[in-house]
Each structure stands twice: as structure tokens, then as C-alpha cells.
């Protein structure tokens, strides 16, 4: 009985380790892609100029469909810039702007804003297709 429990615990540990390895590999691939975009083969680049832009469209409110709400990330080569967000409802629209430093929001970003910043940093933009995550 103890051997069976030990075997199950060991197999669980292996599965958790494999999932962590997959996650780490994905993070490394993203970092390499980001670094590759920052490397310049020829010429001089102004790293402070806005160069990466991504638009993430989504349905922010249940009452509005058609992906009318959006977050736009405008980022320079240093990962600094802004995220402009517009939440569109049936009777009103709210607009927010949040600063980004080093690829991270100075204020807490919404998941949609983070998606836009990430897509801009990776060069996926300008129009980002939402990814469906199983919950």
C-alpha cells in the first residue's frame, strides 16, 4: 500500500515537473523572440521611438458584442510607452490610458491590456486575435 502511494506521489511529481518545464520553455521562447526584435542587424535605431503597436479587441460588457472595446499598446524599443483602453457600452464609452515601463504597467493592467502589451513586445500586432483559454 505504501509503495502504491509512493509511486503515485512520484508520478504526480513527474507530471508537475513536465508542466513546469513546458511553461519555462514557452517563457524562454517569448524572451528570445523579444530579444530578437530588439537586435538590429544594420544601421542605427532610435530605441525611444514608438515602434511596436498592437490592438486587442474584445467584448468588455455583456450588453455589447462585436468586440467594440479595445486596448492599444504603443511601445518603444525599451518597452516603455502607453496602453490606451476604450470600454464601449450601450450608452457610454470610457477611455483610460496607463503608462508602461520596461514592458510592464506602472499601474495594474487588465488582462486585455497585458495581452496588448505582450503582443506589441513580441511583434504580433497590429491586430491581435484573442486566445481562448480553458478555465
Q: Percent range for helical residues?
A: 25-40%
Please count the beta strands (DSSP E, at least 2 residues each).
Answer: 6
Content-based structural category: alpha+beta
Instruction: Kindly provide the radius of gyration, computed on alpha-carbon positions and rounded to a whole number of angstroms.
Output: 20 Å
* Sheet with most strands: 6 strands, mixed
Q: Please list the strands of the largest sheet in the order they lie side by side.
A: 5-4-3-2-1-6
Distance between the termini: 34 Å
Strand fraction: 25-35%
What is the overall pLDDT average? 82
Describe the global form. Answer: flat
Q: Give me the number of helical elements.
A: 2
Which H/E pattern describes the elements? Answer: HEEEEEHE
- Low-pLDDT parts are none
What can you see in these coordinates?
- The structure is a single chain.
- The protein is an alpha+beta fold.
- The chain has helices at 2-38, 111-122, and strands spanning 50-58, 69-76, 81-88, 93-101, 104-105, 127-128.
- A six-stranded mixed sheet has the order 5-4-3-2-1-6, covered by helices on one side.
- The longest helix is centred in the first third of the chain and has 37 residues, at 2-38.
- The chain is flat, with a radius of gyration of 20 Å.
- The chain starts with a helix and ends in a 7-residue tail after the last strand.
Amino acid at each position: 500500500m505504501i509503495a502504491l502511494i509512493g509511486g503515485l506521489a512520484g508520478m504526480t511529481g513527474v507530471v508537475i515537473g513536465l508542466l513546469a518545464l513546458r511553461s519555462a520553455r514557452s517563457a524562454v521562447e517569448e524572451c528570445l523572440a523579444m530579444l530578437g526584435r530588439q537586435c538590429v542587424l544594420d544601421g542605427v535605431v532610435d530605441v525611444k521611438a514608438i515602434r511596436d503597436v498592437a490592438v486587442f479587441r474584445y467584448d468588455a460588457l455583456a450588453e455589447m458584442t462585436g468586440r467594440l472595446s479595445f486596448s492599444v499598446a504603443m511601445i518603444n524599443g525599451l518597452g516603455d510607452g502607453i496602453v490606451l483602453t476604450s470600454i464601449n457600452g450601450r450608452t457610454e464609452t470610457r477611455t483610460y490610458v496607463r503608462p508602461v515601463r520596461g514592458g510592464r504597467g506602472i499601474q495594474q493592467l487588465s488582462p486585455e491590456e497585458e495581452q496588448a502589451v505582450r503582443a506589441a513586445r513580441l511583434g504580433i500586432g497590429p491586430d491581435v486575435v484573442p486566445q481562448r483559454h480553458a478555465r
